[in-house]
Write a structure and sequence with these properties.
three-stranded mixed beta sheet, Hypothetical Protein Aq_1857, Chain: A, 9 strands, alpha/beta
């Protein structure tokens, strides 16, 4: 089981944590939503909760609860800039379909 970060994503998280004055790393999750079933939830982690699973990639800690990990195990998180838009993107090998807008997925 693993979650990985591209160099761009790791750099973005590290830079933001320094700018905000602290934090543990990146917290990933999923929520039931959208037209395809699930949507990614991404926040900065300030603590590890009981039961959380912690990975480290490129010097950044990635915190995730075990239920979410079942759905996104093997995912690579990227940070993409396209013109004025910038966002984290996910390459999840478990996805069997996505909605047309790319905001939700199913497994």
């Amino acid at each position: 089981m693993a979650i990985s970060l591209t160099e761009s994503a790791a750099e973005r998280v590290s830079t933001y944590l320094k700018k905000r004055g602290g934090g543990l790393g990146l917290r990933l999750g999923v929520t039931k939503t959208g037209c395809s079933g699930y949507s990614y939830v991404i926040n900065y982690a300030d603590a590890v909760d009981s039961g959380d699973i912690v990975f480290e990639d490129r010097g950044v800690k990635i915190v995730i609860d075990p239920e979410a990990l079942k759905l996104i195990d093997g995912t690579e998180v990227d940070f993409v800039k396209n013109g004025l838009n910038e966002a984290f993107s996910f390459r999840n090998p478990n996805v069997t379909g996505e909605c047309g807008c790319g905001e939700s997925f199913n497994i």
